[in-house]
Design goal:
mainly alpha, 88 residues, 5 helices
Length: 88
């Protein structure tokens, strides 16, 4: 990705956000608030939504990350698979 030319093959989101805290620190704070702040949605539901959106965006890194966390919060593998292959 030309904009993030410093990234390596095994880089992740922290390699971007920690490189420029002034610029990307607010993104970390906002995403932490969205994913773990007070909400009517459970952590599992938020991770499920994030996994679904990541699959729509075709971002395998984000999908894999959110899928793993959703599973850790009790979301079944079959629900994740079905949701990303057929919304109905």
């Amino acid at each position: 990705m030309p904009f993030f030319s410093f990234l390596k093959d095994n880089s992740d989101i922290t390699d971007i956000t920690w490189r420029d805290r002034k610029r990307f620190g607010p993104f970390d704070k906002a995403s932490q608030h969205l994913m773990r702040g007070k909400s009517e949605l459970t952590f599992a539901e938020r991770e499920l939504i994030a996994a679904y959106v990541s699959s729509l965006n075709s971002c395998q890194y984000c999908f894999g990350s959110h899928k793993s966390v959703a599973k850790a919060f009790g979301i079944s593998e079959s629900l994740l698979t079905n949701l990303t292959s057929d919304l109905e």
